[in-house]
Amino acid sequence: MRNIILYIAASLDGYIARADGSTEWLHNPAYTLEGEDFGYSALLQTIDTTLMGHGTYQAILGFDIPFPYPDKANYVFSRSAHPDTEHVRFVSSDAVTFIKNLKQQEGQSIWLIGGGQLNTLLLNAGLVDEIILTYIPIVLGSGIALFAPEAQEKQLQVKKSKSYANGFVQLIMGMA
């Protein structure tokens, strides 16, 4: 069975984006460390599929770069139907059933990119196998939470933690 990995960054107060979906705060030059990508390249080598909510997809399109995962199977979950694109298949059916079936297929791990609603849905359904969470030393005060208020209590096991010279702290956790 394939694993689903939530690899994501959050502010110290638990937000993955501002209320308008913007994430420019993640790209502060003060956070740059020469030659360090915080495990991103290593993650990309282990996955062949991405999952994201429609808001996250729209935020990625707003980066004004070519679609970043053209060599992956990309699924965008939305409550309304959208036509598929060259790189993305839209899913408006039951996400949990779709993803349970996807986990049963042959392939590498699956990257759950986010956002908060999809993170919560998959966490509550017991479909998230690993969380790689990088805390960024900033307090946003409000925004899109890592998990929606409907998140059910889950016990996690920290497998590894790492701190970086720029103040980032990364936790790698599995389900307990």
Molecular structure report:
- This protein is of the alpha/beta class.
- Helices cover 19% and strands 32% of the residues.
- The chain has 4 helices and 10 strands; from the N terminus they run E-E-H-E-H-E-E-H-E-H-E-E-E-E.
- The strands form 2 sheets. Strands 5-4-3-6-1-7-10-9 form an 8-stranded mixed sheet. Strands 2-8 form a two-stranded antiparallel ribbon.
- The longest helix is centred in the middle third of the chain and has 10 residues, at 95-104.
- The chain is globular and about 40 Å long.
- It starts with a strand and ends with a strand.
- The mean pLDDT is 96.
Present the secondary structure layout.
Blueprint: E1 4-11, E2 15-17, H1 40-46, E3 47-53, H2 54-61, E4 73-77, E5 88-91, H3 95-104, E6 109-114, H4 116-124, E7 130-136, E8 144-145, E9 156-163, E10 169-175
Parallel strand pairs: 1-6, 1-7, 3-4, 3-6, 4-5
Antiparallel strand pairs: 2-8, 7-10, 9-10
Distance between the termini: 18 Å
Q: Low-confidence segments, ≥5 residues, pLDDT <50?
A: none
The portion of residues forming beta strands comes to: 25-35%
Structural class based on helices, strands and sheet pairing:
alpha/beta
Major sheet: 8 strands, mixed
Order of helical and strand elements: EEHEHEEHEHEEEE
How large is the count of helical segments?
4
